[in-house]
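User: Last request for today: this protein with heme C, please.
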Amino acid sequence: MRNALTKLRSRAAVAVAVTVAGAFGLVAGASAIASVASSTGASASADDAALIKRGEYLARVGDCVACHTAKGGKPFAGGLPMHTPIGIVYSTNITPDAATGIGAYAYADFDNALRHGTSKAGYTLYPAMPYPSYAHIQPDDVKALYAYFMHGVAPVYQPHIPNGIRWPLSMRWPLALWRIAFAPDVATGTNAQAADGAAMSLERGRYLVEGLGHCGACHTSRGTLLQEHALTDGGGLAFLQGGVVEQWFANNLRDDRVDGLGEWSREDIVAFLKTGRNTHSAAFGGMRDVVLDSTQYMSEPDLNSIAAYLQSLAPARQQAALVYSNKAALALHAGQTGVPGARTFLDNCAACHRSDGKGYDGVFPRLALSSTVNAQDPTSLISLVLHGASMPGTHSAPTVFTMPAFGQRLNDQQVAEVVTFIRSAWGNQASAVDAGTVQRIRKSSP
Ligand code: HEC
Ligand code: HEC
Ligand code: HEC
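Assistant: Here's the final one, the structure of the complex with heme C:
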């Protein structure tokens, strides 16, 4: 199977390249979507309150609401614009409204969309819908999700917004080739260990991260056809080694000691996912919403399972842990600001992150020895300085601390220098950043 896939992959790559390059993202035939609804009833067995409740929890884990809700719109009613290199695609209405949502979807139709990536009308969905990850969801969990969407979600009449993608890029057949080449086989049996969320287990963690949690959709880098370089840990070290999503770099989540989670304890990871902050870091960018909509609702056993699984991922690089150095702090205290970026740091950043780079626990994150600051890819750091960020206010940590934007006050050269400074001060050891990179990110900012 693997061989056949590899061959298919290279052939499909050639065939698809022209039409789909960039298209993976998202193109969509809106008229087709508008017409998919036909008539079949929901299964009666779905009427089970416990099943619906479990489905609701699983929908949280899968973060369906994130993509299927427009800003200020009704939950799951779709209409969120997703920007792609070839145009805008709008997410669909997945409330049980019969005319404009999925009310007329039989279980098989729902399963086909969720795990197989095919619509009720038979065409292939854009993998902006993370069905390559959802393929790992076990049938029992698909049933619970179906019960929830049919009986636990209020129907909303909201017609699909036509996508802004023109022919020929709006053709869907190349997506079918993409799907055959890159989507994994759909889970059939039930792995009891993975299914049972009552106690912490590595298998449960793997199941949630590789499947419903679709963490790799952001944290794994993508190839030229925008396929994830690995969909599971078995697929290689690229899995969860980090990827850029819009203007943010989703960190390396493997066990690397400098830029990964190698220095985080299991409790650290659980606290980050539950509260959006811990002694190492605070959530921002795309992760802010993941914490707000999804991970803060996860049960303690599930959070611990996820943390244990992430800690089991072999590091991509053998790295010695960084060691704190007080050289930069002493120099800043003594007013020695000859190093490029040091003056900018003192004037703009030190009030919160402090000249020793240690910040204030739970309020202003530390910059010294931080996996975020030492990330191989500096995209997040540049975006943070240009645009600022606000922590997620979660149920267990409601206070929102905000970092101001410096995009108006600092030019590209100054941003590059201050980011380079924090990447080399206090024992940090990350590469320098140049003004050209800052300019590119500033220009492509929404
Ligand atoms: C990262 C964004 C994203 C997430 C997360 C997501 N979806 Fe989707 N989904 C989409 C997009 C975009 C489409 C439309 C794709 C297209 O038009 O080809 C879609 C399509 C669908 C469809 C097909 C609808 C139709 O009209 O045929 C269903 C059903 C669906 N999603 C259910 C879910 C469920 C259930 C979850 C959570 C377990 C979920 N989605 C999570 C982006 C997402
Ligand atoms: C929509 C994209 C997206 C998804 C999906 C996503 N993340 Fe993230 N994640 C990010 C971004 C961007 C960052 C960097 C910003 C930050 O540190 O908050 C990040 C950071 C993190 C961090 C902090 C790493 C560090 O070194 O500071 C952890 C831990 C994490 N994510 C875990 C997860 C887990 C577990 C999942 C799946 C349940 C997940 N993420 C799904 C985008 C995403
Ligand atoms: C008013 C206080 C304040 C100032 C001034 C400030 N920051 Fe921040 N910074 C924060 C807060 C709060 C966060 C957390 C934001 C979030 O998680 O959304 C943060 C986050 C960060 C992070 C990410 C750390 C992590 O692991 O999550 C970096 C890097 C950073 N700031 C760098 C800087 C730089 C460089 C400057 C000066 C140009 C600066 N900050 C100025 C408050 C501040």
